[in-house]
Amino acid sequence: MKEDFERVLEQSRELETIRLHQNPADMVREEFCLTMEIEHSLQEGTFSFPEAAQTEKNKRILIRTQNYFSAKVHLQEEGLYFHCHDFVELLYVYRGHCRQYLENMECAMELQEGDLFLLNQNVIHGILQEDENAILIKIIIPVCLLENAFIQNLDHENAVYTFLSEAREAGADIYHYIHMHCVSEKVQKLIIQMMWEFYGQDKLYEEAEKSYLQLLLLCLREKSPGWRSVPILLQNIR
């Protein structure tokens, strides 16, 4: 099983490397919301990703957009840049460690092997992967998946349910994340299975992914050691 998953990881690395090495203009147009400024810079060939050290409130922020589920590895080559999403992101540290920044370089969290980090949409953040042997798995959850029927089986008093309910709202006043340390082996197995399904992509893989995601969320109902569910007011970190 482990050897099979290593092959899935290698396939993901290869495809992500191809994605990163494509024409930058094509990648940006495909994956990010375009402003007139960005489109102009793409046409002029002057586009570049924002510098991570730029921390002014009016810094240029890229907005990633995706309306389908995916489970991929994060490549160290991507580097650190601040951006936000129109989806929920689940980051799982399968091996090694990394650092998650929120809003600027002064607000950072260390993520260790076995940690899981759920990040709401619209949160300005950046990932720094200094460990070249680290394996970070990013699962993208489109907000359209989080309808009532999808999360109704969760305990409504639970932090995961609260997080997912709030994730459907596009409000800009609160940053909400959940950080879990050393999640269970069952959670890891579900994440591995989601990777397999995504790269296998048989006829029913989308339905399978929804089922595994629901099982994963049910597993996350129980608080693990070091659990943090945090809504952060923007003015507290800017």
Description:
It is a single chain. α6 runs antiparallel to α7. This protein has 238 residues and is of the alpha+beta class. The strands form 3 sheets. Strands 2-9-4-7-10-11 form a 6-stranded antiparallel beta sheet. A 3-stranded antiparallel beta sheet has the order 6-5-8, with no helix packed on it.
- The neighbouring-strand order within the major sheet is 2-9-4-7-10-11
What distance lies between the first and last C-alpha atoms, to the nearest angstrom?
45 Å
Please summarize the sheet with the most strands: 6 strands, antiparallel
* Main structural class: alpha+beta
Shape from CA axes? globular
The count of helical stretches stands at 7
